[in-house]
Amino acid sequence: MTVMIDRVIETRGLHRHFGANVAVADLSLSIGRGEVFGFLGPNGAGKTTSVKMLLALVEPTGGSGTVLGAPLGDCLTRAKIGFLPEHFRFHDCLTGRELLRFHGRMHGLRGALLEGLGRFGRGVTSVDAVVRLRVDSEERLPELLTGF
Q: Which of 1, 46, 108, 145 has the fewest Cβ atoms surrounding its Cβ within 10 A?
């Protein structure tokens, strides 16, 4: 059974402080199904921090919210959302295998799911055959990704 959600995003008094710096103060909004919404403002206004709080990439200092009817940070809900940050960077100090393990653990994968029996029978140990990434290499990502 599919539950229809009227409000896809709702926040009440959401705020985030970084030490004495207030990045977001009292964000209260309600975005309905099918509505288009965007954050506009100058650099440092809290746009990215607000989005990261909605995605549970940054923990709010206070307030509450829901995304797709679930509390902020709900794992099943996060799996339904894509996010490409403004400044995406690979971790230059990691090997291919370390990068895959890191992101797998961030998404709750453990044990056999992380190492080899994942979706479609592939995990960290066999992903190199799919994307031609030498995950067993000790090379760091900048060397592995040269030419892509």
A: 1
Residues of the chain with pLDDT under 70: 1-3, 87-92, 96, 114-148
**Per-position b or e across 24-44, b if 16+ CB within 10 A of its CB:** beebeeeeeeeeeeeeeeeee
18 and 70 assigned to the same domain: yes
* Same domain membership, residue 37 and residue 72: yes
pLDDT tens for each residue of 83-102 = 877 766 666 677 767 777 77
- Residue 99 tokens read as 């990068």
* Segment 128-134 long-range contacts (CB within 8 Å, at least 24 positions apart): 128/96, 133/96, 134/96
Domain containing 40 equals 7-78
The total domain count for the chain is 2
Same domain membership, residue 11 and residue 73 = yes
